[in-house]
Amino acid sequence: MLKKRSSYLxxxxxxxxxxxxxxxxxxxxxxxxxxxASEPVHEFAVGEHVQIACRVDGLTLDRGSRYNLQADVxxxxxxxxxxxxxxxxxxxxxxxxxxxxxxxxxxxxxxEGDIVPGVNPGSYKLRIRVRDVQAMTKKEIEVDIRVTPxxxxxxxxxxxxxxPTGQPLGPPQTANDLFQKGFALFQAGxxxxxxxxFETALALDPKxxxxxxxxxxxHLKKNELSQARTFFDAELQRDPEHYGSLSRLADMxxxxxxxxxxxxxxERAAAAAPRVYYxxxxxxxxxxxxxxxxxxxxxxxxxxxxxxxxxxxxINMGTAYYRKGDNSGALRVFExxxxxxxxxxxxxxxxxxxLYKAGDLAKxxxxxxxxxxxxxxxxxxxxxxxxxxxx
Length: 391
Prior knowledge:
Layout: E1 26-33, E2 43-45, E3 50-57, E4 66-77, E5 87-101, E6 108-115, E7 122-132, E8 137-148, E9 158-159, E10 173-174, H1 175-187, H2 191-204, H3 211-221, H4 225-238, H5 243-255, H6 259-272, H7 278-289, H8 293-306, H9 311-323, H10 327-338, H11 345-358, H12 361-373, H13 380-390
Parallel strand pairs: 2-8
Antiparallel strand pairs: 1-3, 3-6, 4-5, 4-7, 7-8, 9-10
Helix pairs in contact: 1-2, 2-3, 3-4, 4-5, 5-6, 6-7, 7-8, 7-9, 8-9, 9-10, 9-11, 10-11, 11-12, 12-13
């Protein structure tokens, strides 16, 4: 059966859920949590890894039953020289942009992502602004947060340098100053400058949270895999449950065909961030390729618990049922998927195979022809078999 190999690598590991409706755009349920924690938080330290999530309702479908969504996250503070105006102290970063088929019966989208606030200690507002590209409408939601100082084991290491805005900072300059500067440079498109700032900060404080991870991400962006691995490993020395480093190392091992290492790392990533679907999805792909179909089905089921609109998790689960010889299970999955007007060609083709195996040649022919009309490489011999079987 046809199956897609997923490739998912976005800076800061940001995720989304496939589902929508046709009502007015609304954003709600903004929450922040530490990785692996169940309770929301509103206070965290400079440089601390924080997971964010919100709900979006009322996305507009296009003619193909698809939506197109963009969302930006900002940390905002009012204590600036421009009294009464918002000041962006951690510039906007688009953490989700997708044009995907919408699942039937799902009323909302759940956006999930990670942030590492490189701001000075103080009180701020975290704002998420969502844009429905199809309808050209925007909505936003805010929550109060407090950022506390990073507590170093010894006294703060310092150096002399400049601030992210280029103004003389004057001695001393801390690892946190350089951390902020690195973020500002990265978001301005200066990856080389960001790398230099992060590495200088590491020389001052090798255990500063997220620094090794961000240096690793910059090396990964340049396809310098050995260097990236070194810094991800260093981040895990500081925090053995660092989800970003675990998931990147797992992806790198998977791409290198080291499936044993990839499985172990995805399992650690799933334990570190139990509300994130991605490690379960990747484990399912590995088990499916290794013909461990029961484990694959279990992994895709857990993916769908965390991300109910994930079409490829359903497709791969149906494929696992089919390959293990449970055709009734495959039929249940693909019948449900094929009922969606936005279903992909692979759904109709796989449904046709399951119907053929069940002996329903007429319906199998309809689904196979639908898949072919959508561009799937349907073997003419298969269509001939279906045609002859009906006569």
